[in-house]
Amino acid sequence: MAINNLNRFPDLLARVTEQWQTQRPDLPVAEAGLIGCLLGVAANLEDLGSVALKEVGLSQREHDVLACLRRQGEPFQGTPSLLLEEVRITSGALTLCCDRLIKRGLLTRTHAQNDKRSRVLALTAAGKVLIDEITTTRFQLAEQLMAGLSRNEQKQLQELLLKVQSQVG
After folding, report:
1. What is the DSSP letter of 77?
2. Fewer CB near the last or first residue (10 Å), C or N of the chain?
């Protein structure tokens, strides 16, 4: 089911689901409505999460590259292969993304010490500061958004979502 604006509004989605149930009771309307709800929540969460990125002029891909390198620990570096695996973009898109981050002074690209054919990407001091600030903001937002659920409910939700994800791919 493709994302559309009605999925972002629970009341509208409920009304549309009810209309489909009336018009086409032969279809699995409840299941489609649940997928619509998941899509709407995901879209709304993505919008909220992107606010901090927009404020500092980063795209989601750029954030993902910086975050991947930050998670590696000192010296906050990795290979293009690692980034391709974790960020899940094409090599061409990764090159363009890294070029923008290098131009902004957030990344460096050097030859690997043991293999001059291989490249290593690393966070600069400014890149580390920026990704740490954004990560703190986004993790605090996640904590606020999940505050209405108990730890047990959060765990159950995660288990259920992972179960659905296993059916998707």
Report:
1. E
2. C
Nearest to 63 by CA among 124, 139, 127: 127
Quote the pTM value: 0.82
Token readout for 90 is: 């094409």
Count how many residues are written for the chain. Answer: 169
Answer whether residue 93 shows pLDDT above 90: yes
Cβ atoms of 108 and 78 closer than 8 Å = no
Q: What's the CA gap between 83 and 64, in Å, rounded? A: 9
How far is 25 from 23, CA to CA, in rounded Å?
A: 6
